[in-house]
Structures are given as C-alpha cells and as structure tokens.
Amino acid sequence: YRERGPSNKQLQHFTGVGSWSKWKISITKFPTKWALDATNPKSHGNTDYELANVGDLLYYYPNISEPSPFDTRGFFGVGVIKQKVEENDPWWPDDPEGNKYSKRLILDPLYIAFEPDGVLPVETGTGLPLSFQAINRIADRNNAEELFEKTNEKWNIFPPTPYSDFYQFLITEDEEKWEDQKKEDHITLELELSDDLKSVSSDKLNE
Fold first, then answer.
1. Of 24, 155, 161, 182, which is most buried by a Cβ count within 10 Å?
2. 3-class secondary-structure state, position 46
3. What phi and psi, each to the nearest 5 degrees, are found at residue 67?
4. How many Å from the N-terminal Cα to the C-terminal Cα in the chain?
C-alpha cells in the first residue's frame, strides 16, 4: 500500500473527528475502529461513510469537546480503511448496547503520534472538514493533496520507492564488428526510439 498510495489517483481522503476519549479507545483496542452514529441515515456522516472505499485514508483528529494529551490541535495519525462493517457489539461507553454507533471503519494505522511534537497542526481557515463528529470526506482535491503532502513530509508515510526503467535497444552492427567491440571492451549502439517498457510484465521481457 505504501508503494501505490501516492500514485493512486482514485484515493480519497477523510477526516475522523471526535473526542479524545473515543480516539483513545479506538487506537488502543484491536482492531482499530472508527464508528459513527447510524441512527440518522441522512446525516452528513452517514453520507460520507457510504462514499468511503477500502483503501482510502482516514486522518485522526480529536475535537475540542474535551482535553487531549497534545498541546496543538491537529492530526495525530492516519490509517488505511481496510473494511466497512455494521455490527452491534459495544464499542464506546456512551453506547453500551452497540446500536447507535453501528457503522464502523476498520483501520490499518500508518502513523500514530504519542508525543505532542508528532502532531500535524491544523490552522483555522484551511477548508478542511472538521466540524462534524463522524467522518468527513475532503471533497476539495487540492486540500486533500496538500494534506497528503504535509503528512507524508512530517511522518514519512510513503518513502520514495526506487524502480528500474526498461528500454528497447536495436543493435545494427554486423556480427563481426560486434565481436570486435566486445574484445576491445567497448560497445557502440544505434538506438531506435520506442515505447517505455515499464508497463510490460517481467515474463514478457524475459521472452
């Protein structure tokens, strides 16, 4: 996932907003889950829940409803959405029956800050959706990409992955000249422009 993340143009970005006490439960119990109130199917959170896909990113944001261990308001982590489930087992203390917060995202954490200096600060007026206690889709593509770049720069989530380039070479020298060049430890090639072969499978290249 780390290798394909930045190049996946269909990747969606969401903010998970809620109290620190709920986030603390979510990141300390396994598997990591973020839940939302499912009692109002037409609510903002339910709408964005339906839009979320497996493989999308959810950024962790504790709201100001109660104190958190961080000095700065901002994102303290990010995770990959691994599953979308509806279940009724208890998850948060204010829903002992598990009926209210039944729509849940199972997350694979990519980064969690445990110290204040690991938090990515969020300035007011950024345009990021942080007002609803649920999940919020970052609809503005520019905002989503800017947040991705900032979190990646700070947390090094998606380090650059080296890869090899493959190109076709057309050797036009006569066989005798070719053998002479090999003996002299040098080779001259005439190159014919051709398509980049990065998209060709390894089996095809071996052929």
1. 155
2. helix
3. -65, 150
4. 29
pLDDT in tens, 22-54: 999 999 998 999 998 888 877 878 889 999 999
Query: C-alpha distances in angstroms, 161 versus 3, 96, 157, 158, 186?
Result: 7, 45, 12, 8, 32
Residue 51's closest CA among 142, 135, 128, 146?
A: 135
Element (H, E) at 27: helix 20-28
Strands of the chain, DSSP E: 13-18, 32-36, 57-62, 74-75, 77-86, 103-112, 120-121, 135-137
Q: Residues 119-138, buried b or exposed e (16+ Cβ, 10 A)?
A: bbebeeeeebbbebbbbbbb
How far is 130 from 112, CA to CA, in rounded Å? 18
Q: Which residues in 164-196 are b (16+ Cβ under 10 Å) and which e?
A: eeeeeeeeeeeeeeeeeeeeeeeeeeeeeeeee
161 HSE (CA, 13 A, CB side) = 10
Task: Summarize pLDDT for 128-170 with one digit per residue, the tens.
Answer: 888 767 899 999 989 998 999 999 999 988 776 555 554 444 4
CA distance 157 to 63: 23
Q: Characterize the bridge pairing of strands 13-18 and 57-62.
A: parallel
Q: Decide: residue 146, CB within 10 A, 0-12 exposed, 13-18 middle, 19+ buried.
A: middle
pTM reported for the whole predicted model: 0.73
